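Cross-check.
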Amino acid sequence: MDEPRSPGPLVGVRVVELAGIGPGPFAAMLLADLGADVVRVDRPGGAPLGIDPAHDVTNRNKRSVVVDLKSEAGPGLVVELARRADILIEGYRPGVAERLGVGPDECLAANPRLVYGRMTGWGQEGPLAHSAGHDIGYIATAGTLGMIGPAEGPPSVPANLLGDYAGGSLYLAVGVLAALHHARSTGAGQVVDAAIVDGTAHLGAMIWGMLGAGAWQDRRGVNLLDGGCPYYGVYQTSDGGHMAVGALERPFYAEFAALLELGEDAPDRDDPSRWGELRQRVAERFRSRTRQEWTEVFEGRDACVAPVLSLREAARHPHLAARGTFTADAEGRTQPAPAPRFSATPGGLRRPPAVPGAHTGEVARDWNLPALNGR
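Predicted model, tokenized:
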């Protein structure tokens, strides 16, 4: 089939993604959602994620070819793809791409304008660079995991959203696009070393500033934004649901206190020594009604209170439905819509998740690389 007209601001940008799991594929999906022509180079033997590839949303808007990098011809095919590309993304441990013959030296020799994006947990250098790891260990080492959760008990695990995707994918995407701008201005490509420990640490910039100013304690559950503050936290309702409160500014807090009916004798919000009493008062009030009842009380009011929704509930929320925050593909799979939004060049869902090898003929033709077809 012919490639559909690609919406989005990255139309015309060619990306090679060497298949992996986690932050690399998600970063490539971001580029694909914005219109880039992303060719995922899958390995023989199945999908790395371990689910049916047709349901792997991080492979939407991409095309897939299968290349055996351990075969005699495999590395050369990837280098030829890199020759025709603007960006290459790989997520191997340091040194693996070099051993396979598809490292920066080979690819940049073939295409000096190439942006070679490297996604790892520990980075390309340092004592732990060659060690195995996962999101949870990276954010633990970066000091970020230790900030999340109650003062008593262990830190709370934020799935793999904070490390893999916020500290990893987003920084890789920003990095390769910045390097692409430089390459198009100067003709010189470069290597982008995106490490989850670096990105996750960088996400804490404001907290580090507060720490240095003496406005943040280096322990969990006692600060303004980590659940220590009674008017910035989560409370259980009578039916076991939860409400999220973020009434930081005085006008919002006043509205919050009035709607919650805290009473004029409520402890002073500006006295941290009484935060424990205030939290107890707030918790008692929230336990007096169901989540739905409190939602009706606060909906549309400037009190900065919202119900804590599950994934499926979020997809049905009226505001998100009105904005189209979630969408469905042609097969009816619900998923987040491309973000952010552009007034002149909106992104969109052009293709369902790429099944490994399904687009070999298309890519061989469109990228003028007949050797992909064995010819």
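The longest helix spans residues 161-186. The two ends are 20 Å apart (CA to CA). Passed to J.P. for a second look.
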